[in-house]
Structures are given as structure tokens and as C-alpha cells.
Amino acid sequence: MADTEELLSKLTLEEKASLTAGDDMMSMVPVERLGIPKIRVTDGPNGARGPSYPGLGGPSSTCIPCGSAIGATWDPELAERLGQLVGREALDRGCRGLLAPTVNLHRSPLAGRNFECYSEDPLLSGRLAAGYIRGVQSNGVFATVKHFVANDAEFERGSISSVVEERALRELYLVPFELAVREGGVLGLMTAYNRVNGAWVTEQRALLTDLLRDEWGFEGIVMTDWFGIVDTRGSLGAGLDLEMPGPGRSLGSKVREAVEAGAGSLASDLDNAVMRLLNGLNRIGALDAPTPPIDPKPPTDHDLALIRRAAAEATVLLTNDGILPIDSSGLRQVAVIGPNASLPRIQGGGSAQVMKRRQPTMIDPLASALGDVAVVVERGCEVDRSATVIGRGVLRATSGFSYELFDGSELAGEPMKRGELDELRLFVMNTSAQGYPSTDWSMRIRGLVVSDEDGTFEIALAQSGRARLSIDDDPVLDGFVDPPPPGGRDFFGGASQDITHEVGFTAGVAKEFVVEYARGNPTIAGVRIGYRTKNTDVLIDRAVAAAAASDLAVLFVGTTEEWESEGHDRSSLHLPGRQDELIERVAAANPKTVVVLNTGAPVAMPWADDVGGIVQCWFGGDEMADAVAQVLTGSTEPGGRLPTTIPMRLEHNPSYDHFPGENGELLYGEGLFMGYRGYEHRAIEPRFAFGHGLSYTTFEIGAPRLSSPTFRSGDVLTVSVEVRNTGTRPGSEVVQCYVAPVSPRLARPPKELKAFSKVWLDPGKSTVVDLQLDDRSFAYWDPGQHDWDKVAERVGTVTAHFLAESRRSAGWQLDSGRFEVVVGRSSAVTGPSVSVEVIVEADRVRAEQGGTP
User: Fold this and answer.
1) What is the CATH number of domain 697-779+814-848?
2) For the structural domain made of 4-54+63-288, what CATH number should be given?
3) What predicted TM-score, i.e. pTM, was given to this entire model?
């Protein structure tokens, strides 16, 4: 381990200041003369992307299931093993920091990054995050928990103020971060873009120092989100250590200038920030080793088996009338239908994306698992928000696309570089970091495109820069001569609107596509060529006919990385496009229909009662298709339980009245009654409750037994529950323990998850699960009455005396009283409860003296 105090003493003012801002897009500043290496970081919720970028190229990364899928596993040990895999791949890609996990809560089902986050429940989120963090950091890579705090929507995220009352902040939204620190030992924390109660998070000492470091004991690095708001003096004094990316705009050289100008205590604030940063890096051994080389390695068979297991453990069986698992013995033909069948989505959009190792389909593994059964495939409809990128789905590249990169904007001279793209989408955000010239450059891309079906397609071009498209030497779209206006959604909103041209295709007949591109935007360079089917009625008609002619229909429907993405929230709970209509018509044609939902967040299911089974597979990572095929055909158990509530209607969600915000504020008006807490508080029955999930076997959960009928502060109460597999197949059950206050002093949710455990049992086998409850299992945050002294002075001595017993200073509060401990399979399906009496000595003494306990 390095001597960080000695290092600090040897740093010059300029060097210290330089360490507080990034060196470039994804790295920190090195100090070579003192052996402080360049520290690279990588995005990481879905996998360690490293120097590769979707739409650009580079080494692929292993894609693990998304955050909500990991949430559905209810398995912190599995999360830890996934973290180990991602941490190892981060190191292989030359990185000592991973920008994950994301632990913001599923406050609204429409929040754009729900797929990236674990759950609506803070305990489940925090326990999973702690496991993931331990796994990542076991490789000598620091994890970065994000986004601190109350960044639970994407609407105006760079400026909006999340208005959250103190109890909700403490009891819900801060808890996953607290568990990441206390149980995970996380060494990195990323601040949110948004303000909290009117102030930028990066300038709130009460959060970054008093709470995070002094109360929780955080010993790592606090960094900004990329291009987040920073104040030179206020942020450094509040406890911010690092502004990203580099070069700095408010820290870095700006700090040196301010210190030289004699800015108060800034010199000591700078020393504190640098010491925290050095200590954090020292904890992972980064100061004793050079920057690791970029040497990506493919996943091992063991890695793939782990991801496949995780995808299966995340898969939730929502409904089943006996149609699942599929018994192929009596089947002649199965119709596989839906836009996500041939083009499943394994990850969401935004910074969580990685370069995919492969593009699986749902069709091949299911057809293989069904054996000799005939399989017919129909798209049914289209789902992409923008035009589907050429090279995917029905318009595919026969051998990919080759490109030539030229210096200058004229596409002339000897190419600087040649390479390959899988699809006609190029996106370059930081040219120098991604190996492109920092001055003007141009590119020619060409390849053969073939359609899987006859039809007319609308070909669409969007650009950031200038682009044109020729098909079989015929110039059809020209953004050089007639540039389209801005306002497109691609490239984080930097793309133009589409220009379009209709082209007829004959199935199996290839056409040559040539795209010429010249960089014109100094920040973002990009071009996307996509397609839309002109006549979608015929797609649905063909799907319905296939379903009617088959013994079973399996529908793969869902969203995409554009519908669920960083940067925007969804506007509707319904499946995009004509998918609801497709499901309704297919189910009417064949009552033996199974729907597989390939989404990262809840969707409305108006057809739920009309189909034989519903399976939620989330964005399941590289091995999702194989895992889902195994679940559907019964070789693997559907091990998932919902980490979030699925409402009957969007209007039933507790946050509905206050989402996504207005006039610069996002009011958390439901307070503590978020998620399942709110549904139960208002007696609103959801479509599927938090924790719900069916099995292919049956379980019996016994009545809970307590290690003691009473609980005192400092105790640990053990709740023992016997679980028995009463069915004929091996399977898993998640034992969920909820605590319900009987007569709370302040308003509290009817019950809250306080412990859980996932168990696997063979048929006829049983086990006893021991769950532990501590002070926080029964406590609540009491914000106190901040103006009580002034009120007491005005109301008088006598009145104040009678009220004073109920006025306490702010803090975690444990009250005497009775609590019910309830164990069940979901927040809605619970079994017998058992009472425990909480005894707080101060309350007992007050009661004996005639006061109010």
C-alpha cells in the first residue's frame, strides 16, 4: 500500500488541483513523477464496456442481465458473482473503476432508467447492490454507486429539483446507498444531475460529508455525473472530490486559480479532497500498480453458464393456466410470433449499453428445445421507436458493412483506417478518445442488404454531420445537399429528423447500400440508416393466420433500448406500436397462447385474462434466449419474483399525480407510500403484487417462529420459517418477511419488507430459513419539529408541557409497542403472522412516571 500522506506532501498545488478533474472522457489525471498512474473508468451496469462504443465498434463485452432482472432474482449472492465477472472484465479493459451499480428506486413504472435499477424496495435494492459491489471490488476495481440521490426520473434531470420530505428520503431513497456503503464497502459514489430540495447535490455538505462520510463511514471517492453542475468553492467544500469528464470546467485548474487568489479555506478543502481520492485508490491497490493494459478476453463457459442461470433466475412466471411448461409431445406446429422473437433486446439504452458479444434470437433455442415440432415465424408488427437500423431484423446485412475512414471531409485520398460495422449506425461522441481525428474526417460504408420477405420499406436517414445514401448506385437520400432539420431522438438527442425514401425488396435478393458521411458537429458525429414496413396490416394478418394454423402460439413482445433509455422517460405504460392489438388478435385465433414480455420495466396487460401464460424475462443479457427457451420448455425453473409492482392502470401508481414534474420541480408527494407501500395503504389491488412469481412446483411456508417474544434496542431477533417443496419438481421459493406496526406514533406504511431469503429445494424436501431483524427493522425516521422552541414559547408553559412528550429531535426512532411479523410469497400473499413486543427502556420509565410513551 502506498503512503498517501507522503504522496500528498509531495504534490504541488498544480498537481493537487489537476487530480480533482478528469483527464479526458473516461480517465483521471496521472502524476507520473510520483508514480500516480492514469486511472481509467468504464460504464458498467450491464457489463464493462471499456473503450468500445455501440454503433462504432471495438471489442465486445459480456452483457449480464439488466438491473431490474437482477432485482427479480432476489439473490445477493448471485449478484456478487455477476459483479465478480464484470469487475474482471473491467480490469481486462484497462479500467480500475466501474460506474455501477445504479440503485435509484422504481418510483414510477415510466422512469426511463428503471431497467438499470434493481427495485422499488430500498432493502432489496441495497442488499443486491452490496453483493454486486463486493464482487466488483474483489478484482481491485472500485465500484461506483449512483446516482446520489432522488434521481428517479429522467425528465429535465439536469436541472429539476426533487422535492422530497425528510422521512421519505431517509427511509426510502437513501437506504440503498447506505447499504452500499455499510454492507458493500463501496469506494466510489456518483452524484446525481438533479437538485434535491432546491440545492445541487454537488454543493450539499449535509449529504456529501455529514451523512455520507461522518454518519455512514464512506471512505471512497465522490465524483460527478458526466458534465454535472459544479461550483468551484461550494462543491469542494461540500465534499466533492472529482469532476468528470476532463478537462475540468469548475475544478482542476479553476481550483488552482482560486487558491492562488486566496479563496478562504479552499486550500485545505483541496487537500482533503485529494487525500480522499488517494485513499480510495489505495484501497484497491491502484497506486501500487501501473495502468492495466487493454487486453479483453472472451467469456469462459463458466461465465456463460452463470449469465444463463441469472437470466433464468430472473424470469418471472406471472400467470399460468397449465400451458407451461410446454409439453412438445402432442404438438405438430408452434407459431413463434412478435417483433422481439427475431430481434430480442438484451439491454436498455444509454450509458449502460455494451458492445454485444452476439445477437441471439428467441427462435433458434426454442425450436431446438421443441425437437421435431414444426416452427413458423411471423413478426406481427414493428416495435422500434426510430426506424429499425439496417442490418437488424428483416433487412439484414449478408456479411456486415465495411468502412473506410478518411482525413478531411472530402472522402478522398488513402484511407486512414479500414474496419467493419454490424449495422448502418455510427455514433462517435468523443473523437480523440475513440480513435478518430480531432479535426474533420469522413467515411464511406458499404455492404449488401437482403430482405427476408417481399415488401415495400421506408428507408430513413438521420445524421449529426452530413450523410448520403445510395442503393444499387442510385442516390436516394442526400443530407449533404438537403440537410434535414434537428430534432431527432438518436445520439442522445443530437440527431436530425429523418429524411425518407420508399424502396421495394424481393425476398432473398440483395441490394448494395453505400453511405458517405462527413463529420460536421464538433461534439457528436453520427449517421443512422433505418427502415419501416409500409403495410403493417399484412404483418398482423399473417401472424393471426399462423397462430390459427398452429397448436400453440408463443408471442415475444416488448420494448427496445430506445423506448427504455437514459435521457427520457416513457410516456405510456402500454406496449409500443400495435403489440397489444397483435396479442389480442392472436389470442382470439388460438386460446393456447403464451406471452413473453421482453421489457425492462412494467407494461400494461389489458389482454392478461385472455392468454394461457405470461412470462416476464426483462432485458436478460447474452444468454437470455437460451434461458427463456429452457424455462418455457421446463428444463429450468422460472426463478424470478417481481422486484416492482405492476399496476392495473398507470393512474393507480402512487406517484401518478406528481410524475414527471413541472415548473422545475418533481414533487415526491406520495411520501413514504411509494410502490407496494402505497398500493396497500390505499387498498388498490395491482395486477401483480411486489414479490409475485409462480413456480412449476408447489411450496408450503410454515408459520414464523421468533427467537424471543420481545425485542429491545441492540437485539437481533431471529425469525425461523420452515419451507417445504410439496410438488413433483425441484424449484425455488423466496421467503419474504414483512414487519407491520400495530399502533405507530407517526404515519407508517401498513407493512414493509425487512428480510428475505431465496431457497432451492428438491421435491419433498424441506429446510428452515432463519431471517434476522434488528433495530432498523422496527425503527422510523422522526424528523422532529424544528420550530418547537418557538411554538412552545407562544403557546405557554402549561400547553407546552402536555405536548413536549411527543416532540423529539430528528433521528432514527424506536418506539415501544406491538409489531406483527408476517411471512409470505409477495406483499399481497402472506401467511400467518406472529407478534413481537418492542420494549424501549426510556418509554417504560416515562410510562411509570405518568408520561406518554
Assistant:
1) 2.60.40.10
2) 3.20.20.300
3) 0.94
